[in-house]
Design a protein that fits this description.
It is a single chain. The chain has 303 residues and is of the alpha/beta class. It has a 5-stranded parallel beta sheet with strand order 2-1-3-4-5, sandwiched between helices. Helix 5 packs parallel to helix 7 and helix 7 packs parallel to helix 11.
Length: 303
């Protein structure tokens, strides 16, 4: 009985040692693959997989298309009542402006791989059509500045309702995503139109040009400070604030869309940054400031 027990004990010990040897080999094999960076895929959700994933936002896109209104066309920056796309903050080639496209691509490359589809006088309702035309170029970044003309109407009652503005911007974004599912979008906020009035109203020439029909809801009867004029301007100011909130909210729903976090609206344009013909649209210096704001937003590191 003692010898049988010894044999049984040895058999159990042998089985235990064999099992331990197999387990040890398996553990060493797994550790060895990890140590040499084997070809097996990393477990789902692992740090290795996350480190190799492409970032959602590319801070150096290789092509740019711009859509929007007169600001993006460089209106009144070079001559009276005329577009001057060469000084556009988004795609212009002027060295004085150093546009977003030039900063991202370099001057030679920007001349070949940036396009301006903005139209002076356009409103948010026109943006989807501009996006469709821009999409034919397959840009990696679409720069948007639109909405000022929705507030700049003949009267405050003619301004685009906020709900319509939202629907129109959402339609433009849907159009963009249908045509360009992976393109990045930079959305600039609408400038503070009331501040532009307060700066430009000191210039007699500018006020004469305003009478030709530039943003009458804000600039009409420019010298009047009575309660009706103040209410009218404040109504325009508040509508622009609402539009900017729409831009922010709609953009936030798209993981490849960034706004300027209100930087253009907050920028305090001085007389040097305003057109010396209409004292309302950005001058060449003002366009350069817009380019700087856009470049900071597009290249910023964000979580």
């Amino acid at each position: 009985m003692g010898q049988g027990t010894d044999r049984e004990t040895r058999r159990v010990r042998h089985r235990v040692r064999a099992t331990l040897a197999v387990l040890t080999a398996a553990v060493l094999g797994v550790a060895g693959c990890d140590a040499v960076g084997g070809d097996s895929p990393a477990p789902s959700g692992s740090a290795s997989k996350r480190s190799k994933a492409a970032p959602v936002w590319d801070r150096s896109p290789d092509s740019v298309a711009a859509v929007g209104d007169s600001i993006t066309r460089g209106f009144d920056a070079c001559s009276v009542l005329s577009d001057c796309p060469d000084v556009s903050w988004a795609t212009g080639g002027s060295a004085e402006v150093d546009s977003l496209a030039v900063r991202l691509l370099g001057k030679a490359e920007a001349a070949e791989r940036s396009w301006n589809y903005a139209v002076t006088g356009s409103r948010m309702a026109d943006l989807a059509g501009q996006v469709t035309r821009a999409a034919a170029r397959k840009p990696e970044l679409v720069a948007v500045m639109a909405g000022a003309n929705d507030a700049c109407r003949a009267t405050t009652s003619a301004m685009t309702p906020v709900a319509d503005f939202r629907d129109q911007f959402e339609k433009a974004m849907r159009t963009l995503r249908r045509e360009l599912p992976r393109a990045q979008v930079y959305v600039a906020s609408i400038p503070d139109l009331k501040r532009l009035w307060s700066q430009g109203r000191t210039n007699p020439l500018g006020k004469q040009v305003w009478k030709l029909g530039i943003c009458p809801s804000m600039l009409g009867d420019a010298d009047s400070l009575d309660s009706a004029a103040t209410l009218r301007r404040n109504t325009v100011r508040d509508r622009v604030t609402d539009y900017n909130e729409v831009l922010r909210e709609v953009c936030a729903k798209d993981r490849r869309c960034r706004t300027d976090d209100g930087a253009v609206h907050a920028y305090r344009f001085g007389t040097d940054q305003l057109s010396h013909w209409d004292w309302f649209h950005p001058s060449v210096s003002g366009q350069a400031r817009l380019a700087e704001i856009a470049y900071r937003a597009v290249t910023a590191e964000r979580a």
